[in-house]
């Protein structure tokens, strides 16, 4: 018994307690941090990085809000940065300590959730659009009509990802409304069109890449990173940017107010804003990163990929998908519930 | 001799049993099969390979998560089994008393309260402890796991005790054994299969936990289940299948142990 207690004490002591110099605690989405980049950072600055995974913005926020989380940097999605700031959970960045801040691409500098980038720096961003197999359907793929009013060739071969926010945003923009529309006429149109279209879909499923590659689906509502991976496995897959408006998302790095390793956190943020390092993040996660000049360092199969950079005519049609509130959310929940029946 | 009635002879018994077994085990067997698939595909079989197991073992995050899982499960099983043994002795080796049912309910509370409620409560409670003490080690996970593992350890131990009558203990007392000697040389050896079964169930329960762990883990404390959960948002790869298959194998081994320890002797 004595020996057991001693062993227990040893385990508890060895894994807890003092934070040594040269550490950094990063709290990020699972399977989203390039191991190569972390290794490079550790070797450059002699800092040990500990990565911990979260599976949703809500879990991450709940843990940070409870206090004493022990993390230094967190990577929340766009809509959540404002919440962290409002609750005083993150600190304003000292831009003099981030010389590479100037590398943030101009279009990602003055963003709605953090004007002037005072609290957050870009991590990865992407869009929600249509993946379509060009051999099955040769018409216009830059439209949400692909799933809202499916053309005859695609009927019965379409998948829709079961992600309410993204799908409702596409549907609402298709019906002529804003992402969080509260207009009953628009939402009525959304509801009727979705219910009429659903019998022409094949499934509502997340795993799109395999099935687009194997021609099990002829089209799907898709994230651009998945669309890129599908095309690399099946050259017939094309990514369409709906002209009625498509969804955008961005994950951002923020510095916690109670971070203990502030110096290393600044080093890391500055490090990933260097174009060659930002490219390493993208090479792993397969999304774009918001750092100007990083494309030159990306893997060849990502350079100029049409999934990562929207053609000029569609560039301005993306809308950020935020968590809607109030009446808009009520409409969305009601329609989504009806759609699942 | 029991009556001739047997549930196995009811019409449709075989059909329903087969359907139930297929529904329970087909997905698990599919997952295990695809963990040996040569390609990245989760949908098409291309040949046998152990690559995903190799990849999983080379991944530092996986190794760290596996180590965390094992440490937490071992200590949680140790603590919860000790507490559960004492609780089982206290609730069975005596005459029935007022409030006995209430005591059972209190001990088995983790089986009834939704996990997410416990998780949020522990998150808030442990956060204030962390603030006050500065300690961020595995202790929180071990304590939390020990707490919800207690009923899993308690139930087999109590079942074992209820099957043991007091005659041997009475005989030991008659022969001038002290209470401690009686417990040490009579009760405990007889009880041991129940204790081991309880410890294994507690270990498996701790190994599987996601919700509570996700909420109270400190930096760097991902366990295998929370690590796997983190992988799901992006394209699932067969290395997650390989990990699931390994967890399944450990669980099955331990459950087989529980079965062997608790089965009724033929005599």
Describe this entry's structure for a reader:
The complex is a heterodimer of chains A (341) and B (267). By secondary structure, chain A is of the alpha/beta class. In chain A, 37% of the residues lie in helices and 17% in strands. Chain A has twelve helices and ten strands. Chain A is globular. In chain B, α1 packs across α12, α7 crosses α9 and α8 packs antiparallel against α9. The model of chain B has no long low-confidence stretch (mean pLDDT 87). With 267 residues, chain B is an all-alpha fold. Chain B has a single domain, classed as Orthogonal Bundle (MetI-like fold), CATH 1.10.3720.10. The longest helix of chain B has 33 residues. The interface between A and B is large, with 40 and 41 residues.
What key attributes describe this structure?
heterodimer; A: 341 residues; alpha/beta; 2 domains; ten-stranded mixed beta sheet; globular; B: 267 residues; mainly alpha; MetI-like fold; 0% strand
Q: How many strands of chain B?
A: 0
Query: What level of helicity do the residues of chain A show?
Result: 25-40%
Helix content of chain B: over 70%
CATH-defined architecture of chain B: Orthogonal Bundle
| CATH topology-level fold name of the largest domain in chain A | D-Maltodextrin-Binding Protein, domain 2
List the quaternary state of the chains: heterodimer
Structural class of chain B: mainly alpha
Structural class of chain A: alpha/beta
Question: What is the CATH superfamily of the largest domain in chain A?
Answer: Periplasmic binding protein-like II
Number of strands of chain A: 10
At CATH's second level, what is the architecture of the largest domain in chain A?
3-Layer(aba) Sandwich
Q: Nearest-angstrom radius of gyration of chain B?
A: 23 Å
- Would you identify the regions of chain A where 5 or more consecutive residues have pLDDT less than 50? 10-20
Report the principal-axis shape of chain B: globular
